[in-house]
Amino acid sequence: MKGEGEGISFLSNLSTPQDQITGNAPKGEHYLLEVDNPMVVPVGKKVRVLLTSNDVIHAWMVPAFGVKQDAIPGFVRDTWFRAEKVGTYRGQCAELCGKDHGFMPIVVEVLSAEKYTAWVGEQKKKIAAAADDPNKKWNLAELKARGEKVYAANCVACHQANGQGVKGTFPALDGSELVIGPRGRQIEIVLNGKGGTAMAPFGKQLSDTDIAAVITFTRNNWGNKTGEVIQPSEIRSARK
Ligand code: HEC
Ligand SMILES: [Cu+2]
After folding, report:
1. Is there an atom of ligand 1 within 6 Å of 107 CB?
2. What spacing in Å lies between the alpha carbon of 49 and ligand 1's midpoint?
């Protein structure tokens, strides 16, 4: 899910740790109903939600707001709510959408007007601080460290922390010929995805620097030791 408004843009991903999902750790209080970046809205204000999808039909449902609206590829649907009390509200995808249907929680933080204004200010400062200098030349260690975070947030669910993937379903990136071979094919698949498979295009959701970082990370982690650095400028020029 992508949040936008006030010029603030972010992705909201399931944050339940993998070891709780695989049964190797006790389940937390908000198991499968927690995210890294919740949607943040002011109390008492009408909030308009625009919905679409880039794969199949999902639905945005937060029962406490009485809202359930489909998210349909190729269409933009809207809905609205006005939260009457501050607090944390949870919901889920409400349209059976595939094998990850149970892993698409929604969290909405409703803040007082003052706290909301403070949050917006904080986000804007963060955006300014995090803006990457497009001409910066990154070194291997910097990109690998950043790429590890991008991988953990966007790739680990399928390709796994050990890079081995899931046999027969998600290919291993550790030792993959495509990952250690010429970089162009890898840049292409991460930017544009692979139609008809679970490999989504990441070009729209991730910045040039994030894509360069995650590719550099996968080319220099586990048994992959290409020693190569992929600069953000290479991603910029590969975008169609
Ligand atoms: C929802 C599951 C899923 C996620 C998340 C995902 N991938 Fe994939 N990925 C796949 C599948 C499935 C394929 C195989 C596509 C095919 O059939 O060729 C694949 C293929 C690849 C390949 C080609 C590997 C090879 O040997 O053919 C690379 C590289 C890759 N993904 C990188 C990434 C990166 C980097 C991320 C995170 C930014 C990511 N993937 C996130 C499912 C996923
Ligand atoms: Cu869904």
Report:
1. no
2. 30
- Cβ neighbors of 126 (< 8 A, separation 6 or more) are none
The tens digit of pLDDT for each residue in 32-79 reads 999 999 999 999 999 999 999 988 999 999 999 999 999 998 899 999
Ligand nearest to the CA of 160: 1
Around 115, how many Cα atoms within 13 Å sit in the side-chain half-sphere?
10
What does the angle CA 184 – CA 189 – CA 194 come to, to the nearest 5 degrees?
Answer: 145
CB 129 within 8 A of CB 121: no
> What are the chain's domains?
2-130 (2.60.40.420), 140-238 (1.10.760.10)
86-118 burial, b at 16+ Cβ within 10 Å, e below that, comes to eeebbbbbbbebeeeeeebbbbbbbbeeeebee
Q: What is the tens place of the pLDDT at every residue in 114-154? A: 999 999 999 888 887 777 887 889 999 999 999 999 999 89
Residues 207 and 132 sit within 8 Å (Cβ to Cβ): yes
The pTM score is 0.64
Atom of ligand 1 nearest to the CA of 194: 15
216 lines ligand 1 (CB under 6 A): no
Q: Are 156 and 149 in contact (CB under 8 A)?
A: no
Closest CA to 132 of 118, 121, 146: 146
pLDDT digits (tens, 9 = 90+) for 178-230: 999 999 999 999 999 998 888 999 998 899 999 999 999 999 999 999 999 99
Tell how far the Cα of 52 is from the centroid of ligand 2, in angstroms: 11
